[in-house]
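Hi there,

I know you've been waiting on this one. I reran it after we fixed the sequence typo, so this is the corrected version. Both the input and the resulting structure follow.
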Amino acid sequence: MNTGFQNKHVVVTGASSGIGFDSISFFLAEGANVTASYNSDPRDIRDLTDSYPEQLNVVKVDVRNESEVAFLFTEANNFFGRVEVVVANAGIVYHEEVPAHEMSIEQWQKTIAVNLTGVFLSAKYFFANLKKYPGDDASLLLVGTSAGDIGDAWHCDFSTSKAGLRGLLMT
């Protein structure tokens, strides 16, 4: 089956585990050139660099930091050329159950910063990238969850951050 990703340039944030890692594995297998970002530990991405040395560019990025997200797109363009697909996947969830009235402002702010502001910055620089490097096609994928639609008991920070993606997507 031809998925159309052969030689396409895909950026995936939060690529070191879970959906992000599965995404880069899929795109690489389909022949895409992938710029994969991670924040703290590249984990299994290292194994893929051995298997796909010509198709994989790995960049350390904290998506909460605007200059680092800008750098991600500069680095991606310098390495593989125009970015055609972005999977805005970077995200965090605290697994400890905390009721809203006991949640620290630090937990709230970090979750919103990574899960919502990080996606906004990824979209912002992707759109700027498309303006600078026009082309025929482009796709932006925002990774959400049902928690953004129905909530998630004891994780109001996570649910709120994912609900915000709907507003961003519809804008």
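Quick highlight: The helical segments are 18-29, 45-51, 66-80, 105-132, 147-150, 156-170.

Best,
R. S.
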